[in-house]
Amino acid sequence: MGFEVLLKGNNLARLLGGLGVALKISLLSVCISLILGTVLGSLMNDRHPLIKGVLRGYLEIVRIMPQLVLLFLAYFGTTRVLGINISAQTASILVFSFWGTAEMSDLVRGALSGIPPIQYESSMALGFSDFQTLVHIIIPQIVRRMIPLSINLITRMIKTTSLIMMIGIVEVLKVGQQIIEANRKSDPNAAFGIYFTVFILYFAVCWPISKLSRYLEKKWEA
Amino acid sequence: MISYFPKYVEAFWLTVRIGWLGIFLSIVLGIVSAFTIYFRIPVLSRITGAYVEIFRNTPLLVQLFFLYFGIPKLGLSVSAETCGIVGMGLLGGSYMAEAFRSSLGAIPKLQKESAEALGMTSFQAFFRVILPEAWILSIPAVVANVIFLLKETSVFSAISLMDLMFTAKDLIGLYYDTTEALFMLVVFYIIMLVPVSAAGSILEKRARYKMFGE
Amino acid sequence: MEAILDIRGIRKNYEDLVVLDHLDMQVKSGEVVVIVGPSGCGKSTLLRCINALERIDDGEVVLDGKVINPQDKQLSKVREKIGMVFQSYELFPHKTVLQNLVLAPVIVKKMDRKEAEKEALRLLERVGLLSKQNNYPRQLSGGQKQRVAIVRALMMNPEILLLDEITAALDPEMVREVLEVVLDLAKEGRTMIIVTHELSFAKAVADRVVFIDGGRIIEEGEPGDFFEHPKTERLKKFLHSFAYE
């Protein structure tokens, strides 16, 4: 079935190392997205027409352009148009942060507008100052709404990082390909075993995170 | 640049064809899966439940590699195009199932009971009342899924389908016409997705009006 | 007795619409004033103007001889003295009942947490909700939530309590449990302004009933006179709309 090849040499370790590369890039991008997205999301209800227009344009680009196209633009395009040479890793972190920030900001905007104005008022009626209201009443509620959704964003980010092999980063799929190539003669069926393993690896990473997200969502449902 | 144009048009139609066939398949698969889960059909609902979890938690690219390079080792050979359609259908089906299931679940029980109180059989109540309401309710999620799936078509080049990405990469590799190649790539994806996105928002607006009158 | 709250000629517009029209009103310490009137007559806006949740366009609100100024940096200090309970409860969904009660005393009044909790438990027992102290708001019925909201306002030991249609969102069988708490507070001598549609409750709890229509006080009086012998046509018509004959 082609699973034997996994036990040869350090093949399994190499595969896991490849997954590590993908996870590293996605976690970095998630962190950047969380921070920038929160800032941007708080600006989203701004009434200034210019800010509003720019943000909407940004969100629309992210909504419509496949991440892979953005990756190509960042990786191949920057060299050509801007004359700077960026590594594939930098390009992918840039693109995934660009994408994740948009997603995150939309989540923050949604969570903010989901808190009824009368919650602010009831807190002020108790004598809380604006700052105290924000710290003790509003932010904790937003965080509770945001955490499950942000966790969800993490799994999507991890799934999306599988694309980085297309711009030549050696991650888990690419490592798989290399192992299959190297064992073409001795293990002609390696493709089944290796790709099945990669499939399971991704599932093993994403599924628990999805579960956690759904559990928290249920638990904190108001 | 002009000389590449026919290549892109060809690739565009291939991408659109696989994309929409895959989306059609995913809607069918999604409806079937959602029904088995909604009606709690024994055994079957567990299988579809597992299917939804597995395909929602793995990337399309990995699914395609497994389908295209892995499965043939079991003696089952399929063309890249079939593989693309099936892969897209399986991935999309799991997303559509979730969309339909949650909108079915969102219809209050009282709707069914009030339909039955009017003398409908439970069969009639489901097909005449529950289903149409759930369908309208699911439109925003379905639209989002369609756009998501059309974007996912970009990974087909990985299983050597000559889609838009493949063509762009080819031209970059062969002629170093990076700027033109990328420009055409973006233009064709805009042509593919902007109408869908616009139609989607109109559909959503009409659905909202139907359900909530606003 | 001296008026604790003095509302002097306040006016409030929403663009062209006049909601409060140079309205005057005094409330004495320990007095329970019930405000009735048709929907949209300005009665809820009046309450919101008193603790400066709404900005007023003219006139002033004086509490304890001090003018309430919406621009005042110390506005929250003034609001501490005015308790308010909303129709929609507005408990904080991310905190338990007990946490809801002690949050403001601890944060705003810098009260000792242990002491605040002791007081909270005492009040919870009084409204029959001691067993719910560790529940989250979503686990409570509407009537229970509203009783907690009343206790939350009491925790600040306000000089005056504003109740804004606190039973309007409740199922009929839950109205009584909430109103009984309010009756109890009235007996205790709390100063309150109550906006309500429950006329029989108004009769039972009020020292004075005020009828507002079109942003002005049309008629006021002791509950007996007010309900049995209304003088103005508008009040007669209003009261009549509640009767089935």
Q: What is the topology?
A:
The complex is a heterotrimer of chains A (222), B (214) and C (245).
Chain A: H1 4-7, H2 11-43, H3 49-64, H4 67-82, H5 88-113, H6 117-125, H7 130-160, H8 172-182, H9 190-219
Chain B: H1 5-38, H2 44-56, H3 60-70, H4 80-106, H5 109-117, H6 122-152, H7 164-175, H8 178-212
Helix pairs in contact in B: 1-2, 1-4, 1-6, 1-7, 1-8, 2-4, 3-4, 4-6, 5-6, 6-8, 7-8
Chain C: E1 3-14, E2 17-28, E3 32-36, H1 43-50, E4 58-63, E5 66-67, H2 75-80, E6 82-85, H3 97-107, H4 113-126, H5 142-154, E7 160-164, H6 172-187, E8 192-195, H7 199-205, E9 208-213, E10 216-221, H8 223-228, H9 233-240
Parallel strand pairs in C: 3-8, 3-9, 6-7, 7-8
Antiparallel strand pairs in C: 1-2, 1-4, 4-5, 9-10
Helix pairs in contact in C: 3-4, 3-5, 5-6
Description:
The complex is a heterotrimer of chains A (222), B (214) and C (245). Chain A is an all-alpha fold and 222 residues long. Chain A has 9 helices and no strands. In chain B, 80% of the residues lie in helices and 0% in strands. Chain B has 8 helices and no strands. Chain B is flat. By secondary structure, chain C is of the alpha/beta class. Helix content of chain C is 36%, strand content 25%. A 6-stranded mixed beta sheet of chain C has the order 6-7-8-3-9-10, sandwiched between helices. In chain C, strands 2-1-4-5 form a 4-stranded antiparallel beta sheet, covered by helices on one side. In chain C, strand 1 and strand 2 form a beta hairpin. The termini of chain C are far apart. The mean pLDDT of chain C is 91. At the A-B interface, helix 3, helix 4, helix 7, helix 8 and helix 9 of A face helix 2, helix 3, helix 6, helix 7 and helix 8 of B.
Features:
heterotrimer, A: mainly alpha, MetI-like fold, elongated, B: 214 residues, mainly alpha, 0% strand, flat
